[in-house]
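Lab notebook page, bench 4
Experiment: in silico fold of construct C2
Operator: M.H.
Input chain length: 178 residues
Purpose: comparison with the prior construct
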Amino acid sequence: MSRLGKKPVDVPSDVKISVNKGIISVEGPKGKLEYSIPGPIKVELSENQVKVSRPSDLKSHMSLHGLVRTIISNMIKGVKEGYKKELEIRGVGYKAQVQGSKLTMALGFSHPVEYQIPEGVTVEAPKPTMLVVQGFDKVKVGEVAAELRDFHKPEPYKGKGIRYLNEYVRHKAGKTVA
């Protein structure tokens, strides 16, 4: 049984929520997000809380119950505070630079890697070997960070590549010459 789904979500005073024809929209200081509520799940608004309920105890209804509640909670936190992911670039000569809405990275390839930054997400390079991805949509921020990491995943022998800040990469021993 979903314990998290039963918990009401508190709504801060500067966040506006509305439910209209199965679509919940959340608007706050950082931006506006919308989400289409799955059919059987009901969302009720009170003065400063959002309650999510399900019609029955079917396994699919129970899993959707907790999921919808978590998504609404993430939307509220996103439009109020925002989300941030930090990436670290390791390797000799590896660096990144932001120019307008384009990110250019030197990752040891014969050509520079260019990435078009999507709308609603900002990417900053406070240091040439550091990237900060910020935005109000948790899904987009995570997706952009994962796409950037995929350009050169950290390899296990020298640890070169793009990794999340404080991510542990297990190192392997190289070949020994006998």
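Observations: The first helix runs from residue 3 to 6. The mean pLDDT is 92.
Next step: discuss at group meeting.
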